[in-house]
């Protein structure tokens, strides 16, 4: 198979979301790590091997042919404070209780003061979307799209 373009990675992400399958479930079904699938879906085709990509494409009904110029997508450029640290033990996340359950309020300014790739406090890879549904993150502790907390204690 020829090399996968970043646009094909994004095409796969859109197909997964449309199918209503989480990254975690898809990763377990095709035999890869959720973190590798996440990086692949962000346009890094080398994060998954060819066999896994073909399994995903078959499962989601995605054609792996190269993307035409008309189909190319402009990559998203993140501004500062768009990421949060997924590590519940990181001091950038403030724990609080709701109905006996511990939730974590991410402090995006502390974790991502310069729009970087890693948490400025603990070094963990920052999340830029809801880890459950891929929705846009906001200032709260729970995703307004899927209702799941952004950070889950280990």
State the gist of this model.
The protein has 154 residues and is of the alpha+beta class. It contains five helices and two strands. The protein has two domains: 6-71, lambda repressor-like DNA-binding domains (434 Repressor (Amino-terminal Domain)), CATH 1.10.260.40; 78-154, no CATH class.
What's the SSE blueprint?
Layout: H1 6-19, H2 23-30, H3 34-41, H4 50-60, E1 93-98, E2 101-106, H5 108-111
Antiparallel strand pairs: 1-2
Helix pairs in contact: 2-3
Task: Please tell me about this protein's structure.
The protein has about 150 residues and is α+β, with helices and mostly antiparallel strands. The chain folds into two domains: about 5-70, Orthogonal Bundle (434 Repressor (Amino-terminal Domain)), CATH 1.10.260; about 80-154, no CATH class. The protein is about 30% helix and about 10% strand. It has a two-stranded antiparallel ribbon with strand order 1-2. Helix 2 packs across helix 3 (about 35-40). The model has no long low-confidence stretch (mean pLDDT about 85).
**What portion of residues belong to β-strands?**
5-15%
Described by strand count, sense and barrel closure, the largest sheet is: 2 strands, antiparallel
The count of helical stretches stands at: 5
Number of separate domains: 2
How does the overall form come out from the CA principal axes? globular
